[in-house]
Every structure is written in structure tokens, then in C-alpha cells.
Amino acid sequence: MNTPLANLIFKILAVAATLGILAACAPPPMTSTSSNLTLEMRRVQSSLDRQEQAIQDLSRQVTAMDSRLQRQAEEIEQLRQTSTLSQGGSPPGPEPAATGAVANILPGVGSPTEVYLQAFGDYASGRYQAAIRGFETFQQRFPNNSYASNAQFWLGDCYFNQQQYAQAILEFQKVLNNYPNAPKNPDALLKIAIANLQLGATAEAHQAVDTLNQRYPQSTAAQKAQELTIP
Asked: Among residues 176, 181, 186, which one has the least CA distance to residue 214?
């Protein structure tokens, strides 16, 4: 019999059947096991996030090191060309930095360029103690050379790279005091700020950054100083 009541009963049964199906498909209540699984998944995700951040930090460090090595190679090549031209020769072709006869020059023996290249080659290779002796020899023998300020800066950086921050600050300060117009003065101020930060001297770090921003606001060092986190 196709009556309104029959239709209504049919609809009610259809709705009940649908609700039964939905109830059967619904996820089970949260149990202790599923809760533990959720917590474990969150811990794994947190660990992955930390690893990704560490990889990003390492990538930035590698990029900074590549840039530093490129600047060092350019400086060595410029010195080689200057040395050759001063002897009446022609500029040499490119070759690996500090790997030829220059690398065997004894400290304190040779021209300013040779002594500087020997010290710089030791610095670039991580032989900081030998580099310190070389740069000190250069400063003693050629205090008025055009690269004296650079030698003083790299001397400070030798101590900085060995985490001897107090001595590094003293050497970087000599760059500022003895060579007020040196091209590496902004970098010296930045290294002073970082070294003070490593020593926990936040007031001195702030002062170095303030001086850097006032004197060299457009410098690359001033831009890098903005990335420092000083309490």
C-alpha cells in the first residue's frame, strides 16, 4: 500500500539505516595506545623540525665560508700580480693560492709580498700559530706597507678563530687605533662585537655595534651585525 504513512515509515527506516552505517564507520574512541602514538608522532615531528633548522644553519655557515675563501683567493691573486708588476713582469695567470714556491719561504725572509703571502697561506690553511708569527714578522719589518692594516686584521682573526677572544679584541682594536682609514675597520668592529658577545660582555658588544652603525652604516659588516642577538 502506497500511502503517506507508508512513505513516512519508509523514510524513517532509511534514516535509521544511514545512521547505523555512519556509526559503524566512525573512528573508535581515543585509547591510551592511540594517545601514546600521537605523542610519539609529535616528538618525531619536533625532532625533524630541529634537524631541518640545523641543516639550514649549516648551509648558511658553508655559504659564509665559501664567500670568505673567495675573498682570500682574490686578495692573494691581487698581491701576486702587484709583486710581478713591481718586478717589471706581466700579470701571471691564475693558480692555486699559496701553493707554489711562496709557501716555502721562511718567515722574515723575502719581500713584503712574499712574507705576507706566506703568513696568509698559513692562515687560510688553518695553521694559525704559524700565521701569527708570519703576520707579526710582517708588522715588525714592514709597518708602513700598504697591507700592514690587513696583516693586523688577519692577526686578530687568527686568535678569533682559536676562540682566544680577549687577545683577538686587542688585535682588532689595533686595526682601529693604528689604521683609522683601513678598509677592514668595519669587519674589525664586527669581530670585536662578536668576541665580546662570546665573552659575555654585552655592553661592550652593543658599543662596538653602535660604533659600526655610526661610522659605516652602509657596510656589509653593519648588515651582518643586524643578525646578532645581543641581550
From this structure: 186
Instruction: Record the cell numbers describing residue 223, joined without a space.
Output: 648588515
Are 195 and 165 in contact, with CB atoms under 8 Å apart? yes
Q: 222-226, long-range: CB within 8 Å, 24+ apart, which pairs?
A: 222/186, 222/190, 224/190, 225/190, 225/193
Confidence of residue 74 (pLDDT cuts 50, 70, 90): low
* 112-130 pLDDT, tens digit each: 999 999 999 999 999 999 9
| CA–CA gap between residue 158 and residue 225 (Å, rounded) | 20
Query: For the chain, what's the residue count?
Result: 231
Answer yes or no: are the C-beta atoms of 197 and 163 closer than 8 Å. no
| Percentage with pLDDT > 70 across the chain | 54
- Residues contacting 197, CB < 8 A, separation 6+: 205, 228, 230
- 216: closest CA among 178, 176, 165, 177? 176
With contact defined as beta carbons under 8 Å apart, do 81 and 89 qualify?
A: no
- Between 39 and 195, the more confident residue is 195
Using the predicted structure, report yes or no on whether residue 228 has a pLDDT greater than 60.
yes
